[in-house]
Q: What sequence folds into this?
């Protein structure tokens, strides 16, 4: 693994704070993913996480994404000028939902005896240039969030955590459908929202995380 | 939300969820129409009695039986949804071009869900639930507004139904499949809510699940006797 880390220092530097015990596994896996392809790496992550507090790691992974989303809508409402009433309403609802998700997931991590992931530094580039670029980036975020939860869902051990994750991912799906409608996209890119492996989610989220 | 999930978890410990369905059906006094629906949900006798040489196999076939019941329940709901949108499109009642496009996408999704869930039941060694006889005449006669309101109701119910079952599913593969459909139902629900001027997240930041009995009662008016 260390060899792979050396070959791809950029990828290995992705920081998902709070993943204390597995952080080195995650970074190694992400780096390996870029060398061997993601499909080879995903089982490795699942295996590594199955050995310990898998649910806490999954929740902290989700928490990081929720922090990103919450920051995205909070900043959008401040920075994007000339938002239409419909878009402003959607952004407000979504921001409030994501903030509630952050609070609920943090509380759940603590309840399970874990340490909640820290709020990541963010950088949304030119996403706030105008309403269109905001909506397009929002579609990316919401679809990614749906895929992330659906990908992690089957690895969740506790039925209570799975029920909680399910109630959140449905709301992410609702955001995704609504924001796609406003952006003039097909409301569901496919009849099935397939799970996206964790390593792939992290790579897609990486451009928005400032280390 | 968690209370309901916990309550729902107890269902598999009952002698049979099917017995529970039947109890519910008896209680409502609409045996005729519901019997067809219920039969569709519980047709798994064949698979559970076919092969069981060792104790471990018994155990795995038990959990497969529970999953089978859930998948057939989902299949019955998807049949209902697919039939609804297919009839809505045929009726030509939805005049707005943009909304008709949405209905077409949703119809395609629901038809694909039927195909996928049917295949999943077969993979689990079960017999896919039969297509239920439906009746949407009153809704279709009510015009575009009534159709869209019903569509929103059905989608919100469908999303809640999947959410209610997810923690009960034993197989990771079946769970992954159910989750991949669950959020698509959530997308449909939010979009239809938006179209009829309702909140995209009627339960707030955390969607609420619905158990089988609740869902069954809600779809009863659409099952033909």
A:
């Amino acid at each position: 693994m260390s060899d792979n880390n050396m070959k791809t220092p950029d990828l290995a530097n992705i920081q998902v704070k709070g993943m204390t015990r597995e952080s080195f596994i995650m970074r190694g896996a992400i780096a390996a993913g870029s060398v061997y392809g993601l499909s080879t790496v995903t089982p490795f992550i699942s295996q590594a996480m199955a050995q310990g507090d898998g649910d806490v790691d999954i929740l902290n992974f989700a928490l990081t994404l929720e922090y990103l989303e919450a920051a995205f809508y909070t900043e959008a409402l401040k920075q994007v000028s000339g938002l239409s009433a419909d878009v402003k309403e959607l952004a407000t609802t979504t921001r409030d939902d994501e903030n509630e998700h952050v609070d609920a997931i943090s509380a759940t991590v603590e309840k399970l005896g874990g340490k909640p992931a820290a709020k990541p530094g963010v950088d949304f580039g030119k996403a706030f240039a105008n309403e269109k670029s905001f909506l397009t980036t929002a579609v990316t975020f919401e679809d990614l969030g749906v895929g992330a939860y659906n990908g992690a869902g089957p690895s969740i051990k506790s039925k209570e955590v799975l029920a909680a994750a399910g109630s959140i991912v449905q709301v992410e799906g609702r955001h995704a459908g609504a924001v796609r409608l406003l952006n003039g996209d097909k409301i569901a890119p496919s009849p099935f929202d397939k799970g996206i492996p964790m390593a792939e989610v992290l790579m897609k989220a990486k451009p928005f995380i400032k280390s | 939300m968690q209370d309901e999930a916990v309550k729902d978890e107890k269902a598999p410990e009952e002698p049979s969820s099917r017995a529970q369905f039947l109890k519910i059906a008896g209680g409502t006094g609409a045996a005729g129409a519901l019997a067809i629906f219920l039969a569709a949900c519980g047709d798994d006798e064949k698979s559970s009695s076919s092969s069981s040489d060792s104790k471990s196999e018994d155990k795995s076939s038990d959990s497969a039986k529970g999953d089978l019941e859930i998948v057939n329940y989902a299949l019955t709901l998807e049949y209902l949804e697919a039939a609804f949108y297919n009839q809505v499109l045929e009726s030509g009642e939805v005049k707005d071009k943009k909304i008709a496009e949405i209905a077409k996408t949703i119809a395609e999704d629901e038809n694909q869900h039927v195909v996928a869930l049917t295949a999943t039941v077969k993979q689990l060694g079960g017999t896919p639930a039969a297509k239920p006889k439906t009746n949407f005449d009153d809704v279709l006669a009510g015009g575009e507004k009534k159709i869209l309101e019903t569509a929103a109701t059905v989608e919100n119910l469908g999303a809640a139904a999947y959410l209610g079952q997810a923690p009960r599913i034993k197989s990771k593969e079946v769970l992954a499949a159910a989750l991949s459909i669950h959020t698509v139902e959530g997308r449909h629900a939010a979009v239809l809510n938006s179209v009829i001027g309702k909140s995209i997240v009627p339960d707030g930041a955390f969607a609420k699940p619905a158990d089988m009995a609740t869902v069954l009662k809600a779809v009863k008016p659409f099952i033909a006797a």
